[in-house]
Design brief:
Layout lengths: L10 E6 L5 E5 L32 E6 L11 H4 L32 E5 L3 E6 L13 E5 L3 E7 L6 E9 L15
Antiparallel strand pairs: 1-2, 2-3, 3-4, 5-6, 6-7, 7-8
Length: 183
């Protein structure tokens, strides 16, 4: 097992589209449940200590462009070999550090296509030809605020063109959404 794309706090869902693009929504950090690490930033000097009280950030939609894509949520245990565990026999959980994992980017920073102000989890690509094909290739995502979001992407899938509430009052804290293709 290998980490394909580091830097996600809680990527609830991953979608691989018909065109072969990969997307994920990462649930952002919650205040007082672990903030950015002390020493975060480029260079790999982060520690296991945290800045508290931390800040709550929105969830963010990412287009994972390939192996090594970095989502922006620091993981000091993989970013710096000096972060060890086991006081009687200190050891790092990784054999090689990945210094990028010390660099924290808030939601909506360098990589996110868009953010959501509530917990957004399940996601699917709409593949059916209904509505004259107007929604084909759009992403649908379920929000804890009882909304199914529609995210329209650019032709090449690298940026968001539009985001709106497609449906409301769908369930009490929906976790997932599904959509069927034509066949």
């Amino acid at each position: 097992v290998q980490v394909y794309a580091p830097g996600f706090r809680n990527a609830y869902d991953v979608v691989l589209t018909e065109s072969g693009r990969m997307y994920s929504i990462d649930n952002g950090p919650n205040g007082n449940w672990g903030g950015r690490p002390v020493g975060e930033g480029p260079g790999g000097n982060c520690t296991n200590a945290q800045y508290e009280p931390s800040v709550t950030y929105h969830d963010s939609l990412h287009h994972i462009t390939g192996r090594g894509y970095y989502g922006g949520h620091a993981n000091p245990t993989r970013g710096n070999l000096a972060n060890t565990f086991n006081k009687s026999n200190p050891q790092s959980p990784v054999s090689v550090a990945n210094p990028i994992e010390c660099d924290y980017h808030p939601a909506g920073g360098q990589a996110a296509l868009t953010t959501f102000g509530t917990s957004v989890n399940g996601m699917v690509e709409y593949r059916a030809s209904n509505f004259g094909g107007a929604m084909q290739g759009d992403l649908l995502a379920a929000g804890f605020n009882d909304i199914i979001y529609r995210v329209k992407l650019s032709e090449d899938g690298t940026r968001m063109v539009d985001k709106d509430a497609l449906f409301a009052n769908v369930a009490d804290i929906p976790l997932d959404v599904t959509a069927q293709a034509d066949h």
